[in-house]
Amino acid sequence: MRCRGWDLRFDDGPKVMGILNLGADSFSGDGIPEVDRALERAAQLVADGAAVIDLGAESARTNRGPISEQEEAERLLEFVRRWPGTVPLSINTWRPGVAAAVLAEGGDLLNDIGALPDDRNARICAETGAALLIMHSIGQPKVAHTHVGYPDVFTALEAFFEEKIRMALDAGVSRDAIVLDPGIDFAKQKDDNLRIYRELDRLHRFGLPILLPVSRKTVVGEVLGIPNPADRDAGTVACVVQGILKGAALFRVHNVLAAVQTVRTVWPLRQLELASESGGLSAVPSV
């Protein structure tokens, strides 16, 4: 995947995206509003093995009101202007005005949780050279969609991605600068989320990297009966394992070290599986 001056390769295994929230209102309780501390935290995430830092300034929680575009942009810009550029920086926003302001200053990937309702964010990525993450959802961000159900969640996902990939390409985004996110917990029920984990490899039909946002998700809490998101890391690791076996390329997580160690343990097993499917077992590294 190309994102500005970076070329992320996945042939040597999936990569881990570390979550960094520039605000106190993080659903997982790990937000850092002070930029000095946030930069220190980002450095630790990189040291732990993060290949990408995902930077957000507004919580996606639907039981919190949105902050203003100006406040969101100011929070992001203060960090971006001081970012040393050790790994690619993902800008997590759905607002085109914020995306345009921040990507003009820096950032390598736009993590658009707004489900790309029009082509504005895609055009911003095309103009700046940033990669574009397309996440599946329904309706406006910051609004609960817990009532949404699907006769078949994969029929919905496939139709959505066909439409949005074409929109991005028509806006000028290069195909090798697009990554897909099935949107775990966004406008989905528990069974929808579990089916996505089980059949994630169906999305390989698009020939694009898949980001799996697994960290401390509501569905993990529902399965384990754990209400506090910060206590869901073991369930998160289990989802990372499933994602590796189903061919995910990126994992967005809070606990980077645990996810990196999981990838480094399970990826050789995935390679053995792939080699077996292709009829050969050569060039498989030891664990």
Total DSSP helices? 9
How many strands, what sense, and barrel or not for the largest sheet?
A: 8 strands, parallel
Oligomer: single chain
CATH fold-level topology: TIM Barrel
The CATH H-level superfamily is Dihydropteroate synthase-like
Distance separating the two termini: 26 Å
Strand content: 5-15%
Low-confidence stretches: 281-287
What is the string of SSEs from the N terminus onward?
Answer: EEEHEHEHEHEHEHEHHEH
- Total number of beta strands: 10
Query: What average pLDDT do the residues reach?
Result: 91
Q: How many distinct domains? A: 1
- Numbering strands along the chain, what is their spatial order in the largest sheet? 8-7-6-5-4-3-10-9
Helix content: 25-40%
Roughly how many Å is the radius of gyration? 18 Å
Indicate the overall shape.
Answer: globular
The CATH class name reads Alpha Beta
The secondary structure category is: alpha/beta
